[in-house]
Write a structure and sequence with these properties.
CATH topology of the largest domain: Beta-Lactamase
Number of domains: 2
Radius of gyration: 37 Å
CATH superfamily of the largest domain: PAS domain
Strand content: 15-25%
Largest sheet: 6 strands, antiparallel
Shape: elongated
Order of helices and strands: HHEEHEEEEHEEHEEEHHHHEHHEEHHEHE
Amino acid sequence: MHETKTRNGQNALTRRLGAIRFWVFAFMVALGVALGIYSYFDHRQVESNAGERLAVLANVMASNIQSQLTTMERQLNALSHLNRVSGGRPPRGDGITMRDVMLEWCQSDPTCMDLLVVDSSGTIVEWTGSGTPPLVDDREYVTHHLRDSAQRVYLGIPQLSRVHHGRWFFAMSIAERDDDGAITQIYVSIRDLLHSFDYAGIVNRTPASSFAIVSTAGEVYVREPQRELHMGRVIPRVDRVLPTNEGESRTSRIRSRLDDRERLIVTQRLERYPLYVAATREIDHVMANWRSRSVVLGLLWLLLAGIAAYVGSRLTEDVRLQDYLASIDGLTGILNRRALMTEARRHEERRQAAGGLGLMMIDVDHFKRINDRYGHVVGDQVLRQVAATLKMSCRGTDVLGRYGGEEFLLLLPGADEARLATVGEKLRAAIEAIPAIEFSEQPTYPEILTISIGAAVLHPGNGNLDTVIALADQALYQAKNAGRNRVVVASAGGTV
C-alpha cells in the first residue's frame, strides 16, 4: 500500500513537471518577442531606483547636517547667554574665565577651529586662539550683521583662514543687539572645512558617487571625493538643480560642472540655512548593469531552446524543493516525520557509497513533566530550542527531523560507532547547557534540560533502515533505563 501511494505521488509529480516544461518553453519564446519592451521599462526602473536610493542618502545627510548646524547655533546661544548673565565671567567662583569655557567647548569638537566674541567695530574681544587676535571687521560674519539688522543668525561662505594658514573654514555667527537695535556683541563659531561633514566613508562604499554641500548661491563647502580640491569653488547656475522650497528634494540628470561627467543628482535643501545637499552617481555606472543585461538578453533570445531545457530542469528542482519544504515541522522548523523518512530512504540507498549511515534517536527527558509543570507554551519553546541547538551542532550533510512528540531523529551519512558516540556526547552537553544559556533569566522555564540518545549504524550490506531504527530505539530505551542524560551506541554486531 505504501509503495502504491508513493508511485502515484511520483506519477503526479512527473505530470506536473511535464506541464511546467511545456509552459516554460512557451514562455521563453514569448519572452524573446518581449525583450525590447522589457529593456525599455527596465532602463526607466533602474534609473528610478537609483534616484530613490540617492534621495534616501541625501535626506539622511541633510538631516544630519541640519542637526550639526542646529547644535552650533545652540552653542552660540549658550555662549551669548553665559556672557550676558555673567558680565563676561561664568557664574562660578573658581577663577574660570569665559575664554576657559570657550576653549573647553572648542577642544571637545575636532571640527572647531575657533570661537570668537566680536564687538561692533570688528574687534575680537575674546577668542580661543593664542596671541594677538586679527582684525575681522571685513569678514562677512561681521559685515553681514552690520548690513542686515533683521537676521540674527548668519551662516558664512567658505573662506581661507588668516590665522590657520592654508586652511578653509566656514563660520556661523549670531548678533546680540541692544534695545535700539545697535550691535553689542557678535558670537562666531569658526569650523574647519577639512574635517566638517565627513561622509567620505559613505561615498567610498558607493561606487562612482559624489556628495556635496553647496550654498544656494553655488559656493562649495564640501565635495567628496577630492574634498580639498573643491573647497571654495563656485558652481554657476545651481538653480537648475535646486528644489523650490526649504526641506524639499529634487532629482535631475545633469553634466557636472565640477568633473564634466553626466550624473544623476538628488538635491535636498536644508531648512533655515541657505545650503543644499547634493548626492550624485555617474549615469554610466548606474546603467552599467542594465547595459550588460540588455546584451545578455539579446544573446539569450538566440538560445531559447537551450534555455528552455535549462529552465525546465531548474524548475524541476524547484518543484522538488517546494515539495520538500512543504514537509517542514511547523513547531520546530526542521523536517517532519514524513520528509525525514523520505530522506532516510534516500540515504539508505546511498549507504554503500557513503560507507554506512549513522542514526540517532534523541528523546527529551521528562518532557511530560515539563509540560505538566510549566505548561504547553513552555514545552513548545523547549522543543524549538532543542531543535535549534541540535541543528547548530550538526554538519551540513547531516539530516535532522522531528520523529514524533519530543523525539528527534538524526541521520549522519558516513558515520561509524565511534563518531556516533563523540557526536552524541557533544549534542547531550549542548542540550544540557540550554537552561544556563537560553533560560537563565526566565524563571518560568526549566532549570534542568537533558536528552537521552540511542544510536546505531546501518552498515553497507547489513540490514535495512527499519532494522537500524529499531536498534537505535532499543539503545534509547537502555539509555533511559540507565538513568537518562546519556548516550548509548549499539555495537557493530547489532547488539546494545
